[in-house]
Amino acid sequence: MVATAPLDTVMQALAVPTRRAVLERIIRSGEITVVELTRGSGVTQGAISQHLKSLKQAGLVAERPEGRNVYYRARPEGLEPLADWMSHYGAFWRDRFADLRALLKEIDP
Amino acid sequence: MNDAASDTRDIVVEEVFPHAPETIWKTLTTGELIGRWLMAPAGFEPVEGNRFTFQTKPGGAWDGVIHCQVLEVIPNQRFVYSWKGGHAANVGYGAPLDSVVTWTLSRTADGTRLRLVHSGFVVPRNESALETMGNGWKKVVRSIGGIADEQG
């Protein structure tokens, strides 16, 4: 099992338009190499590699080496922090517990 | 490994409070007090079957209303209500949610252990889920700002 990256990491990875475009292409392709991603992208292979690194750290893509190539594919579970309400509600309930503690202290000192 | 298209998960928060279960029970089941630590409920009564709502920030196609129904009331021990909201057109904040909130109180030597379980979060797990999310992709990116604001 691969742990889900924190919401911040995922958000930062998606904050750059070029990087989102790279991820969208990976999603559409199923599996794709750096060379194929670079072709027709208008940016250097080095830049694409940097974007892939960020996406990998955010848990949004996974790689599979085969011979001299490395294939990249999207990790749907990497989108969990955004695609569900859990992170929202996790923080929400922890804050509510803090408010409840303050209220109890006030009404039952 | 779960092969299903989705999986449900729970949020669990548990803390010990230096107050009697009866005192905490009051804060969980009195409309006016709920409004002081959670949100002000509309139409709330701590009676099984009672329906009430919370008004939260609207998001996308969702009006921000959370619909609840009291499912179980065991005074000073257990309080359960459903928690439904969201809209199918949303991804991220405002996504559909059909969940249950369970409060459990247990007396300890110097207070009460309060346990919250918010269950029923559907988490996408596989490629077909990715396809679905791919369609909502632009919305996800747009909603990032909103999520960041709330967390900040």
Strand content of chain B: 35-45%
Provide the number of structural domains of chain A: 1
Helix content of chain A: 55-70%
Distance between the termini of chain A: 46 Å
| Overall form of chain A | elongated
CATH architecture of chain A: Orthogonal Bundle
Strands side by side in the biggest sheet of chain B: 1-7-6-5-4-3-2
Mean pLDDT over the residues of chain B: 79
Instruction: Give the biggest beta sheet of chain A.
Output: 3 strands, antiparallel
Give an account of the 3D structure.
- The complex is a heterodimer of chains A (109) and B (152).
- By secondary structure, chain A is an alpha+beta fold.
- Chain A has one domain (7-107): Orthogonal Bundle (Arc Repressor Mutant, subunit A), CATH 1.10.10.10.
- In chain A, 60% of the residues lie in helices and 13% in strands.
- Chain A has a three-stranded antiparallel beta sheet.
- In chain A, helix 1 packs antiparallel against helix 4 (45-57) and helix 2 (17-29) packs across helix 4 (45-57).
- The longest helix of chain A has 22 residues, at 86-107.
- Chain A is elongated, with a radius of gyration of 19 Å.
- By secondary structure, chain B is α+β, with helices and mostly antiparallel strands.
- Chain B has one domain (15-151): Alpha-D-Glucose-1,6-Bisphosphate, Chain A, domain 4.
- Chain B is built from four helices and seven strands; from the N terminus they run E-H-H-E-E-E-E-E-E-H-H.
- Chain B has helices spanning 21-29, 31-37, 127-135, 137-151; strands at 6-17, 41-42, 51-55, 65-74, 78-85, 97-108, 111-124.
- A seven-stranded antiparallel beta sheet of chain B has the order 1-7-6-5-4-3-2.
- In chain B, a hairpin with a 2-residue loop joins strand 6 (97-108) and strand 7 (111-124).
- The longest helix of chain B is centred in the C-terminal third of the chain and has 15 residues, at 137-151.
- Chain B is globular, with a radius of gyration of 18 Å.
- The two termini of chain B are 35 Å apart.
- Residues 1-5 and 124-152 of chain B have low confidence and may be disordered.
- Chains A and B meet through helix 1, helix 2, helix 5 and helix 6 of A and strand 1, helix 1, helix 2, strand 7 and helix 3 of B.
